[in-house]
Amino acid sequence: MPPAGGPSRLELALLGVIQGGPQSGYDLRKAFTATPLSHFSDSPGAIYPALARLRERGLIEPAPRERSDGRRRVAFRLSAAGRRAFLAWLRRPPAAEEVANDMDAVLLRFAFMSQAGLDLEEIRRFVDDLEGRLSAHLRGLELFLDTAGAAMPPTGRLAVECGLELVRGYLRWVAHARAQLGAAPKGEHA
Amino acid sequence: MPPAGGPSRLELALLGVIQGGPQSGYDLRKAFTATPLSHFSDSPGAIYPALARLRERGLIEPAPRERSDGRRRVAFRLSAAGRRAFLAWLRRPPAAEEVANDMDAVLLRFAFMSQAGLDLEEIRRFVDDLEGRLSAHLRGLELFLDTAGAAMPPTGRLAVECGLELVRGYLRWVAHARAQLGAAPKGEHA
DNA sequence: GGGCCCATGTAAAAAGTTACATGATTAA
DNA sequence: TTAATCATGTAACTTTTTACATGGGCCC
Q: b/e per residue, B69-91, with b = 16+ CB within 10 A?
C-alpha cells in the first residue's frame, strides 16, 4: 500500500528471488509459499501487477526461454538497471527506525546478500551497523520500561518485555552471524 | 490495505487504546508515537478516516466532553457493540499462521488483555496456546533448515536461523510471562 | 500581532486482498 | 473425457501514504 519512495517490499523480494535466476510469476508464487522467510502473498493479484510494474520501470526483462515445453511461461531476469537498484537497496545500512519496527526488511536485505555477490567485508559491516542500532534500541526499551513500566497494566508491560526479549534474540543472532561470517574463508560467498 | 474480514490492525489498536478511556484523534496519534509497541502511523490521514469508519459501524461513539476548555475536541469511547467486538478479538486464540508471520497482532491482543478485564485464567490459556503454536513453528523451522539449509547461500541460511532465534526468544518470554501471571494474586488485573 | 502547538480533516495516488476468468497441458 | 494442475491475468474494493488545508487558542 505505501508509496514509500522506492520499490515496495514485495517488489524487492521479487527482485531478490529473480536475482538468483530467471523466474516466472508462477515460480515466484511457489517460492513465497515454500519459503519460511517472508510472509508474502502468493496471490496472483499481488504478484503479476508487481511484475508488470517492475517491467515498466525497466528493472526486469523477459528472459529467453529454455525449457520449451508447450506451456505458456514468461520468465523474467534482472536488467542492468534492476541489478543496480537491487544492489543499492542491499547496501543501505540499517536505519534506526527500521530496526525499531521493520526488522523484516533488514533481514530480507541480509538474506539476499551472499547470493548477490556482496563481499564478506561489506556483509560484516552491515552486521556491525545492525548491532549498534539494536543496542541503542534495547537501551531505549529498557529506559521506557524503567520510566513507564510501573504505571502500565500487567499484560501491557509484559508485551513491552517481549519486545525486549526479541531484541536480545536479535543480538544473540548477530553474535552467531558474526562468528559464521568470520569463520568463512575469504571469498567464500554465493 | 487488506480487507481481511474484521477490523484492520490499526482499527483494533484504536479500539484498544480507546477502551482504556475516551480518546480524541489527536490523543491517539500521540499514543502511537509515544508507545514502543506497535508501529502505527501517526498520520492524520490514517487515523481520522479509521475513526470515522469505526463510528459508522457503531463500534465507537462520541463521549460527553469533560474538559471544556474552548478547544474543539471530539473524544470517542467504545459502544456496547464495540466492546463486544473488541473482546471477541482479544479472545481469539493465536492461530498457526499468525504465529508464523504476524506475531505483532498476537502481542497486540495480549497487551490489551488485562486492561480489558480478561481474567487471569483466560490469559494463561492464551499463553499456553501460544506456546504450543510457537513450539510447532520452531520444529517446522528446524526441519526446514535440516532439509534445505545446506543448499542455501550463507546469508540466506543465517536469515532463517535468525527466525529460529526469534522463536526461541518468544518461547523464553512465554516462560517469563507465565511466571509473572502465575505469581500474581487472584483477581489482580487491570 | 506573530508564531507555534492543538486538532481535525480532505484529496490524489498507490498497493494489496479477494474473487473471478481463462486457457493449456497432463494424468486418471 | 474429466479432473487437476500449470500459468497468467483482471476487476472491485479497501486501506494507507503523502501532502495539503484550515482554524482556534496560547504565549511572548
A: eeeeeebbbbbeebbebbbebbe
Closest in B154, B176, B180 to A154, CB measured? B180
pLDDT tens track of chain A, all 190 residues? 655 667 899 999 999 999 999 999 999 999 998 888 778 888 899 999 999 999 999 999 999 876 656 677 899 999 999 999 999 999 999 999 899 989 999 999 999 999 999 999 999 999 999 999 999 999 999 999 999 999 999 999 999 999 999 999 999 999 999 999 985 555 455 4
**A166 contacts on B by Cβ (under 8 Å):** 166, 169-170, 173
CA–CA distances in Å: residue A62 to residues A44, B45, B75: 18, 39, 54
Residues of B in contact with A37 (CB under 8 A): 156, 159-160, 163
Q: How many CB atoms lie within 10 A of CB B66?
A: 7
B residues 41..60 contacting A (CB < 8 A): none
For chain A, say whether B62 makes contact (Cβ under 8 Å). Answer: no
Dihedral of the alpha carbons of B16, B17, B18, B24, in degrees to the nearest 10: -140
Residue B62, beta-bridge partner list: B76
Q: Tell me the nearest-neighbour CA distance from B19 into chain A, angstroms.
A: 13
C-alpha cell at B169: 526468544
Asked if A159 lies within 8 A of B110 by C-beta distance, the reply is: yes
Distance CA B134, CA B128 (A): 10
Q: Where are the alpha helices (DSSP H) in chain B?
A: 9-19, 25-34, 44-56, 80-91, 96-101, 103-113, 120-148, 154-183
